[in-house]
Structures are given as C-alpha cells and as structure tokens.
Amino acid sequence: MDDTQEAIGYVLLGAGAPIVVCAVDWTGILNSAHVAWRTAMAEAAGTTPERCAVQCVHQHNAPFACLDAQKLVDAQGDLPNIMLPDFFAQCLDRLRKAIAEAIPQAVPVTHVGHGRGRVEQVASNRRINRGPDGRIVGMRGSACADPKLRELTEGLIDPDLRTVAFYSGDRAVVCCHYYAVHPMSYYGDGRASSDFPGLARKQRQAEEPDVTHIYFTGCAGNIAAGKYNDGTKPMRAILARRIYDGMVAAAKDLRREPVGEAIWKTADVLPAPRADLNAEALAAMISDRSRAVVGRNRPAFELAWLQRVEQKIPIVLSSLQINDICVLHLPGESFLEYQLRAQQLAGGRFVATAAYGDGGPWYIPVKEEYPAGGYEVSVAFCSPEVDDDLTGGMRGLLQ
Q1: Start-to-end CA span in the chain (Å)
Q2: If phi over 0 gives left and psi between -120 and 50 gives alpha, with beta otherwise, what is residue 49?
Q3: Which of 53, 84, 97, 139 counts the highest number of beta carbons within 10 A?
Q4: CB under 8 Å to 64, separation ≥6 — which residues?
Q5: What is the tens place of the pLDDT at every residue in 124-153?
C-alpha cells in the first residue's frame, strides 16, 4: 500500500428524508454491489437508497467490486477473484458505522458556495488519434510514452475543477471538488493508492482539518492525463500538485450565499445491451480454460450486465439542487460530452458532475462515437441508444 484508499461523504438533513453522498477511492462499484452500498448508507441514515449516491474516483490500483461477476467466476473454480466479498461486507459495516457516528455531529448549513479553478496540463482527450475516416487508430491513455501521441493537441476537455462548499455561518464544513480526468499516473504494480487526485485532496485536508474535502471524478470516459504523463513515478506528485493548484484556485473563487431550497431528484434508466452481446456465448468464454484470464473475467462483467437488464434493475441518476447550484451524479465511464451537455441543459446554472456511479455498463460513449470504434467503444456494454436514455434522464434532473 502506497497510501490509503477511503470512502468519504456527507449526510444532509432537513431537505425531506436524509440525503447521503459518498466518493470511494475504488475503480468501480457495479450492479448489485452498487445497490448494496446505497442500501447500507440508507439503512444507517434512516432514508431510502434512492436518496443516496455513491461515486467511485476510479483509481486503477484499487478494488473493482462486482458481486455478480464474482459469482460467475466462483462457479468456475479455477479463476482468480475479481473481488473479495468478505472484504466488501466489512467495508459496508465500516460505512454504516461512519454514518451513524456522523449524524449526531450534524451542524446547520446556512450558506453554500461554488467556484472554479483552472487545472493546467493534466486532462487530455484519449480519442485524438484518428484516421482520415474518423476512426480511432491509436489511444493516448492515462500514461503515454509515445512522443508523437503526446505532441497531439489536448482535444476536447473540461479544463475547470469545480468546487461546491457547504458553510455553517462563515465556516466551511464540506468542500466537494469535481474534475474530469482518469485519475491514474502509473498503475498495475499491485500497490494500493488513491493516486494523484487522492494525494491532492489529502494535502487540502491536512491544511484544513476542520473541513471535509471530497474529490469526485467527472465524465472522464474519454479523458486521461496521457499528453502530460509519461507514466514515470515522479509524475504522480507533479500531477497531484496541478490538481491541488486547481483546488486552491477554486477556493479563491468561491462565491458564498445563503441557502435557499434544497431539492433532490432521481431518474431511473435501464439502457439496452449491445446487440452483439449473447449470454450463451459469454458463458462459454467464461468456462473456456484455454482462454487467458482477462478473456474469461471480462465476459463475466458483460454477462452480469445482461442478467441485470433481464431482471430490470435500473440505474439511478440523481441530482442535488441548492439555489442555482446543481450537483449531478451519473453512472459508469460516461464520456466528457455528457458533462458538457449537462452544463448546456442547466441554462446558465452552476453544474458539478460526478460520474463513475453504478459501473454496470462500463464505458458510456455518446452516440456519434460508436462508429469511430476504439477501446472505449469495444468495452461499452450498452447500445448507442444509451445516449438518448442518459440525456433524457439528465434533462429531467436539470429542469
């Protein structure tokens, strides 16, 4: 373990039934595991799962929790664990305990603030290398050692880190930070880490111990640090400093105002699977011992999604609106375009978007990106119509 991975959140009382929002330093929480996490939060806070949002930060040296895929893997008898269900259950116990201890410490929220800080030389678009026909010919990922790919333009990004702060009088109680980039510097070495956004958050937390700082990853399905990150170990601290500088800049920009009405809204979506996903074929891949582990474990995630859709268990989108501030919670590895679209739908209001909620569908491209292919499209479990479903849900939440 290089540094701790944490689940940090807040409980908001007094706006109807309690609202619980949580960010987790894990790669993903998927399907029934995501439902279980929100249910545990609801039980501890005395509310319903629909009034609870849990978003992963998506660091890759971290657990990838899918109870359903784990059951499929367990049935084979020879595959390594996707996750450890006993450890997951322990985390839910810790979660309930933390919420139960937090509620008696509640303080009045009298003001809310929002601000922006520009982040320099972190985010870059992964899908920038295209052929004459517009199709992806090579991906610039989270780390990139190819100088030709790194010389390409940043591409479409959202350069601003957004902060939403809750105040009790003139004292900040919670600061939530939102920025869209895959949060990985180097990874795959088996060492747990909250990576560069986590290190930036921890620095702010150390400087302001009386304020709870929480970091959320925005719609970063097609956004990473590859243009500015060669994957060497010194880059983790450099990228952390750049995120930290954005947090500081957003803090200086915070505009504080009295709290008006607080509104929590939800929308259920259940996007259709890709047409080429077939349950029998996926089951055969999982049981084929001649295939590499990744060629058996990944189909378990796809089959878990098919089974979920068959069971008609929806994904819950949610938003918290206070005054002209809207915090939006979206699923999976949503493409950046959804975040930019949300800002347009909000009609000039301040929107802070957290993606990487329920990770069941994996990548969620926008409709026009499916014909371009590339890695992200190849591991998108939904049909292109997911764009209509997600956009329609966002429109209802942002009205």
Answers
A1: 44
A2: alpha
A3: 53
A4: 26, 27, 28, 30, 82, 83
A5: 999 999 999 999 998 999 999 999 999 999
Amino acid at the residue 377: V
Give every CB contact of residue 125 below 8 A, 6+ residues apart in sequence. Answer: 140, 154, 155, 156, 157, 222, 223, 336
Q: Which residues contact 93 (CB under 8 A, 6 or more apart)?
A: none
- Tokens 């979506």 locate to 269
Q: Rounded distance, CA 158 to CA 229, Å?
A: 18
- The DSSP output letter for 388 is H
Q: How many CB atoms lie within 10 A of CB 255?
A: 11
Answer whether 337's CB lies under 8 Å from 219's CB: yes
DSSP states of 216-272? EE-S-TTEESTTT--S-THHHHHHHHHHHHHHHHHHHT-EEEE---EEEEEEEE-PP
Q: Distance from CA of residue 207 to its chain's centroid?
A: 25
Question: How many Å apart are CA 240 and CA 231, to the nearest integer?
Answer: 14
- Distance, in Å, from the CA atom of 248 to the CA atom of 197, rounded to the nearest integer, reads 13
